Amino acid sequence: MKFWKMNGAGNDFLILNNLEERQRAEDFPRLARTLCERHLSIGADGFMVVEAPVQGGDYRMLFFNSDGTVGEMCGNGARCICRYGYEAGLAGEVQRVETTAGMVTGERIDRRRYRVRLNDPTTIRLDCPVEVDGVTYPCAYVELGCPGLPHAAVPFPGLREADEDKLRELGRRLRWHPAFPKGANVNFYELTGEDQVYEHTFERGVEDFTYACGTGTGSVVTVLTLQGKVSGHNVRARMPGGELVIDVERDRDRVTDLYLTGPTNIVCKGEITDEELPL
Which of 70, 103, 123, 136 is 20 to 30 A off residue 147, Cα-Cα? Predict the structure, then answer.
């Protein structure tokens, strides 16, 4: 099987073009678990499969977390797959990508930067406090698309200096908290300046911190915009893997458009010869 490995702000993915490879759909979770293992195989946060469109898009994107579970959508993954779609000749500079959570549109800004319109927020709870070990954390909760991709936005003063092991344990507790029946991507954040935020995400399905989370960043900035703490325009979010830019268009308290812009990087292209897989 041929593959591409890409990353967007450090969030890394393996891409399989199943229009050419013709792998069985029931094998995708096993492929994700095997190939995303960093010590025993190629390694990645997620596994993306390009399939034929069924709803009028240019192509369909199936997303699997590194543990083999299905992801409704992935913002950085969508930006990367838009570059793949353009360079592989599947779509033009503007493209429509079908995802499990709904249609996503992508736009080529330049050779490496891509912008996607994320799925609409379908659930927004700005005041959703959660208690862990007697401490109440002032969370907000956002779902993007349908079925909704869940995010807990958690303000955390001094985030950049926080003890990573303690923060990881808190992220794990919040990720599985009964307040979030679907589980949640836990997006810790702190405001660092005017229209600037620092963010660190404990991702559902990876079960650890990732270098970036595009849908999580969009959810955090959605919350901050509706709370009046950022303008919603050209909001810059720093994270361990780099910087993403969010734009929120709204009609009063309703978000009408949510855009994610950032870098892409083609790390390598090759052939999978993993002997642990019966290819």
Answer: 136
